[in-house]
Amino acid sequence: MENIALIESFSEFKDDKLIDRVTLMAILEDVFRNALKKKYGSDDNFDIIINPDKGDMEIWRRRVIVADEDLDFENEEITLTEARRIEPDFEIGEEVSEEVKLIDLGRRAILALRQNLISKIHEHDNTNLYKQFKDLIGDIYTAEVHHVRPRAVILVDDEGNEIVLPKEKQIPSDFFRKGDNVRGIIENVELKGNKPQIIMSRTSEKFLEKLFEQEIPEVFDGLIMIKGVVRIPGEKAKVAVDSYDDRIDPVGACVGMKGSRIHGIVRELGNENIDVINYTTNTQLFITRALSPAKVSSIKINEETKRADVYLKLEEVSKAIGRGGHNIKLAGLLTGYELDVIREGNIAEEEDDVELTEFSDEIEAWVIEEFAKIGLDTARSILKQDVNDLVRRTDLEEETILDVIRILKDEFED
């Protein structure tokens, strides 16, 4: 094999990896210098001339002419007799340049060169891929489902890069088939050996924030600022927004007419219920807004312990806590305070009230637990609720709820 058109003999690497010709030249020179060091012990007296326009290269070895009996370093010196076979006029002390053919390195060296070249190009590609996706961390990215596995979905983008969407980074209601387009944020890029692993997430608060930027022009333009985002993926989220321009209603702009603007975001997140609230530096007011739709009577804040006692009328308690305790949990995360619900009510009724656990012989434990999840743990607190509201807020059938109400009413009538 001759050196001429050497680049073409390795052209598949350039074509497959879309590596530019200049970079390929640099990698080739590095690979050949390593091969020369291995064969000759040093590459200091070798010149590698690469012509990227023609796609060829030449290797020249420089050696100093010495007397035949003075030859000590074969790589750097050449005898006068051997030099004069090249050019009869050569004299001792002059420098001879000879072209080294690729075949002179030997078949095994050529095979090793090829493997080394493959390795170097892969290393170059992986380094570039790592840098490219490191810069994309926190940005929304779209890729296609290539393979669905029990613990992760493997995605591939338009350039053939593999992206991993782990099970724990998926919304519980997510269901993917091969060929589906999936949106998420690039959450992390990890090096597994020399290969970068790109991690996507759909459960991150950052994903919801970026969706607001994409779907709501005022957020994208900076007219509305997102001050805080908290989520229970697939269930509920709270987003605090603010604007320096008093003419802009940040909540109204984000939600849109009849929810038109936020509908796309809700659908993307598997019908996740999103509460958008106005941010304020007034802590009491912020907690009040965060607990929406419940109406708070009063709040007592302890700044040292970062706790707040929230006083609510009995009929507002279940709204404040929310289904599965999601509302009060997210309100606490958004405001940064541990929220304790204090029920207000008629003193005579409270003294006459009965803990729901007292009915454990008539009401099954799991039913009592369902009511407790929404803050209803006494008989009167349930009797004050609307049946349809209870059906909506719990996982209980209407028939079960009506049966419980009958049992509780019998207690007070007796």
Automatic annotation (TrEMBL):
Q: Which family does it belong to?
A: Belongs to the NusA family.
Pfam families per record: KH_NusA_1st, KH_NusA_2nd, NusA_N
* Species this chain originates from: Flavobacterium qiangtangense
Q: Where in the cell is it found?
A: Cytoplasm
Protein name as annotated: Transcription termination/antitermination protein NusA
Oligomer status and interactors: Monomer. Binds directly to the core enzyme of the DNA-dependent RNA polymerase and to nascent RNA.
What does this protein's UniProt record list under function?
Participates in both transcription termination and antitermination.
For whether the record's keyword set contains Glycoprotein, the answer is: no
Q: Where is the Transcription factor NusA N-terminal domain?
A: 6-125
Check the record and name the InterPro entries matching this protein. Answer: KH_dom-like_a/b, KH_NusA_2nd, KH_sf_prok-type, NA-bd_OB-fold, NusA_N_sf, TF_NusA, TF_NusA_bacterial, TF_NusA_KH_1st
Could you tell me the keywords of this UniProt record?
Cytoplasm, RNA-binding, Transcription, Transcription antitermination, Transcription regulation, Transcription termination
Q: Tell me where it mainly resides.
A: cytoplasm
